[in-house]
Amino acid sequence: MKTEKQPNRILNGVGVGTRRVSGRLKFFFRGELSQPHKTNISHDGAQEWSRLQTALRKTAEKIKALYERALSSVGEDAAQIFEIHGMLLEDEDFLDALREETERGSCAEDAVEGATQRFSEMLSGLGDDYLSARAADMRDVARQLQQSLSGNESNEHDREKTPFILVADDLSPSETVMLEKSLILGFVTFRGTPNSHTAILARAMGIPALVSVGAIDPLYDGSPALLDAAEGTLTLSPTEEQTSVFADKQKKDDRIAEEHDRYLRSLMNKPAVTRGGHRMLIYANIGNVEEVDAALSNGADGIGLLRSEFLYLGTDDYPTEETLFRAYSDIAVRMQGKRTVIRTLDIGADKRIPYFGLPEEENPALGFRAIRICLAREDLFKTQLRAILRATAHGRLSIMLPMIVSVDEVRQSKRILEECMQELRRENKRFDPKPEFGIMIETPASVIMCEELASEVDFFSVGTNDLMQYTLAADRQNPALARLCEENTEPILRMIATAADAIHRFGGWIGICGELAAELHLTQRFADMQIDELSVSVPYLLGVRGKVTECR
Amino acid sequence: MKEFTYKIEDPNGMHARPAGMLATFAKQFHADIRVNAGEKSADGKRLLSLMSLGAVHGTELTFCISGDDEDTAAAALEAFCKEKMKGNTKM
Predict the structure, then answer these.
(1) Which of A17, A426, A524, B79 is 20 to 30 A from A205, comparing alpha carbons?
(2) DSSP class per residue in A250-291
(3) Could you tell me the CATH number of the domain that includes residue B37?
(4) Do residue B48 and residue A122 have CB atoms under 8 angstroms apart?
(5) Which domain holds residue A77?
(6) Per the domain annotation, does B9 fall within a domain?
């Protein structure tokens, strides 16, 4: 940590969310991994074994402390990770391997490395994604053991105990997903825009962020700062006066939020019906399994958009059908009969995954992405469709195709889905033979063709973010165009009305799952169009529900 | 020796958490507890050993229990599998 005080400065950026937080800045540098500290002091087997035993005891205590802390901060389910770490540390097979290594003359550090490698390779080699991921747990335990051995208690955990404001050049969606949520007060990125997936994720996690602030001198690492997402400012090394004004604003926010929260909670289990009697389903947009509980506890009537990319991010290879099946059925079971709309793989554009080996494109937003990849690589598509179908045996799942521009794409997808069903029948696997099937309306072509498309599917869901950028010919990642997008929602609203008329005539339903769905000044318009469902990020659920009940 | 089979119902297979619960439960008995899945065999009291089975949803596990308290152990383990191994949380 820096001790000398850095000069007071105020930076401007684009705020995500409306909260204000104060805390220390922590700069995030890619690939910062500490190597185990190796020493070659002694090779006396008995002595090394006794050093290991001391280190094992110390590590067990540390893990126990981590478990206790996790229990109070994130709850029992997640805390069990540390229970498992404790068991790994004390596992007889692991201990046997350590003893053997020291008997063979390795020093304690090498013994840990050797034994860890053996078991993490074993786990990685099982061909099961969940168990393979446990190799990382094994390495985590080993790292802590190495730390205890070296006596060099780099206070990594002490440092990580205090939540901080994360500062990075930019964060990719997968990096954002991997971050320790409970430790992040807020994000600040030098680049990025409020519409990027990173910002969307931040919103879903309910943490404030400030993007596009420009570079910050790394000397500020560890310095105090005030992040004001509502006003879009970051105050570095604040003065006492700035800090106290900020604290007053926070107090006022808290008071307003509390009152509002009380009102919204009172609505939670009531259906969202306008005064005119139109019922709207309030659904959640989620990007991983963990968000299901948050959605339900905020009164979600269902999941209107499950971004299925999360299972493909943060890994080195394609997830297996089993992995997908487990995650989908897990969600289906947790939703207890409420509908979950799974959007099939939507990668490409700003969501890139290295192992897909996709070529660099001049213009990825207009490129080889989403359904286009799925139809060109049927094996990939089939793996996902089979997993979804199998999971329909465990709950109420709907399938939704992204980026549709033609009826032909829908028919091709249906044919592939039918093939998957035939395969599953031959394999005697259970599934719902008539899963609800729909498409995203996010291209102008799909609006123009909405009659024909409506005759092919059960539902539409409007992705307003993409629909807006393709209709206005404005890149939503470009900060210079943010205002243009904000001021031109009318063409989008008229397109939604057109699509709604078409699907209603064919007896289907229509939802909106883009960011416009959460814009409260538009809720009345959506109600007038007889929109059946609004799907929003978890923090907006109650607000939208409240707004619907106030509509005519 | 006592023997029984159990087919894994948990959609996530025998991941770390159920394996950990099983190992902890098995440790209270004196009897030697082997858990077999296909050609692989594990010590029912050891977490890493159980995880090395790589047992997924639908895998049939055969428990072989031998020792002075094998009757009690077999009955208790069978009940444990049926009641506690269904879970929906992966970890």
Answers:
(1) A524
(2) HHHHHHHHHHHHHHHHTTTTS-EE-TTS-EEEEEEEESSTTH
(3) 3.30.1340.10
(4) yes
(5) 45-153
(6) yes
Say which DSSP state A449 is in: T
Residues A287 and A427 occupy one common structural domain: yes
Among the options B4, B6, B15, B51, which is catalytic?
B15
Residue A498, helix vs strand vs coil: helix
Considering the domain architecture, whether residues A91 and A137 belong to the same structural domain is answered as: yes
Q: Are residues A467 and A506 in the same domain?
A: yes
Count of the separate structural domains present in chain A = 3
Q: Which amino acid is located at B30 in the chain?
A: H
Supply the pTM of this predicted model. 0.56
Does residue A320 sit in the same domain as residue A246?
A: no
Whose tokens are 């053996």? That residue is A118
- Catalytically active residues of A are 197, 513
The residue among A108, A124, A153 that closes a domain is A153
Q: What is the tens place of the pLDDT at every residue in B9-32?
A: 887 788 888 898 899 889 989 999
Nearest CA distance, B47 vs chain A (angstrom): 6
The shortest CB-CB distance from B46 to any of A91, A134, A137 is to: A91
The residue segments making up the domain with residue B51 are 2-84
Which has more confidence, A353 or A171? Answer: A353
The DSSP 8-state label assigned to residue A351 in this structure reads B
Backbone phi, psi, residue B14, to 5°: -90, 80
Q: Which of A200-204, A247-251, A416-420, A536-540 has the lowest mean pLDDT?
A: A200-204
- Asked if residue A217 and residue A357 are part of one domain, the reply reads no
State residue A35's pLDDT score.
Answer: 44
How many domains does chain B fold into? 1
Contact of B67 with chain A, judged by CB distance below 8 Å, is answered with no
- Other CB atoms within a 10 A radius of the CB of residue A408 amount to 10
